[in-house]
Write a structure and sequence with these properties.
Order of helices and strands: EEEEEEEHHEHHHHHHHHH
Strand order of the largest sheet: 1-7-2-5-8
Distance between the termini: 51 Å
Strand content: 15-25%
Number of strands: 8
Largest sheet: 5 strands, antiparallel
Length: 292
């Protein structure tokens, strides 16, 4: 971990910011911290240490990859069992006013906070890969907070929102494993259907009728899995097949008609945008390469 991102631990239990604060701590000789509470949400992201967190009358041992969320006015304190291993963690504070503003954007921001409140469940385990994805977002946010680059404040806002949504999604999917796997299965089935019917109409309306689900749900699944719209996915798939067909000596006209492009002009625009070259120039370049 970069030393410049590390913060000297303080027993301060109030926020200096109106919205959020993020710290990376690494302590080898931490003094005892008394039981306390505060008026903001406190996230712990654990990296290392022989530590438990006492919440009320319950002690929670924590290990690498664990996330713990302490709501406002819940008493808690760390218990250090052994100082031979550094106690390393990220601590993320969110004010109640900032949390309320996030909820105005989308209730999805508040899933984890509400879940902790209603279930009194504060600790969430993660595998190494999942936690690495969280840690990368924490580090990016810390780095942005310590820079003075152009667009700093706007980038920090994006990083904070991205981090909070990412953690909410992880915990939601942990709590709804069947729903998550059903979405994965549906995504795979739609991909297979697209492959088998690439030369046909593949509009959202048609896919919605084929799979008996809303077109908005289909669009959401593809955005979640690929970061692409389903239209972008289908276009890229068709262009790749056209490119391979042209390399195999299929005529340009036959290629775009075979793989679902309705007319040459739309095929031409999509091909050039994707590959930076026209279909004809791509074909001619292939012939030139064969002669060399």
């Amino acid at each position: 971990m970069k030393k410049k991102l590390r913060t000297q631990f303080s027993t301060r239990q109030y926020m200096l910011s109106n919205d959020f604060e993020l710290y990376y701590y690494s302590d080898s000789s931490l003094k005892k911290v008394a039981s306390h509470s505060h008026d903001y949400y406190e996230f712990y992201f654990f990296l290392e240490g022989n530590v438990s967190i006492q919440i009320g009358d319950t002690s929670y041992p924590v290990t690498h990859g664990d996330i713990m969320l302490i709501p406002p006015y819940v008493r808690h304190n760390p218990i250090i069992h052994d100082s031979s291993t550094p106690y390393r963690r990220f601590v993320f504070w969110i004010s109640q006013k900032f949390y309320d503003r996030l909820l105005e954007i989308s209730p999805d921001y508040g899933y984890l906070m509400q879940y902790v409140r209603t279930h009194d469940n504060y600790l969430f385990h993660n595998d190494r890969i999942t936690f690495n994805s969280i840690q990368s977002k924490l580090l990016r946010l810390l780095e942005e907070m310590q820079t003075d680059r152009f667009c700093r404040d706007a980038q920090i806002s994006l990083c904070v929102n991205d981090l909070i949504l990412h953690v909410n999604r992880i915990i939601y999917e942990q709590n709804h494993p069947n729903q998550y796997h059903e979405a994965e299965s549906l995504y795979q089935n739609i991909c297979s259907f697209i492959e088998e019917h690439i030369d046909e109409d593949l509009s959202l309306d048609r896919l919605s009728k084929e799979f008996f689900i809303s077109k908005y749900h289909i669009a959401h699944i593809f955005k979640d899995n690929l970061g692409l719209s389903i239209h972008q996915y289908i276009t890229k798939k068709r262009l790749s097949l056209c490119q391979q067909a042209i390399l195999s000596d299929m005529s340009i006209t036959e290629a775009y008609q075979t793989f679902g492009f309705g007319d040459y002009s739309s095929f031409f625009r999509a091909f050039k945008k994707e590959y930076g070259i026209s279909p004809k120039d791509f074909r001619d370049m292939k012939y030139i390469n064969n002669l060399i």
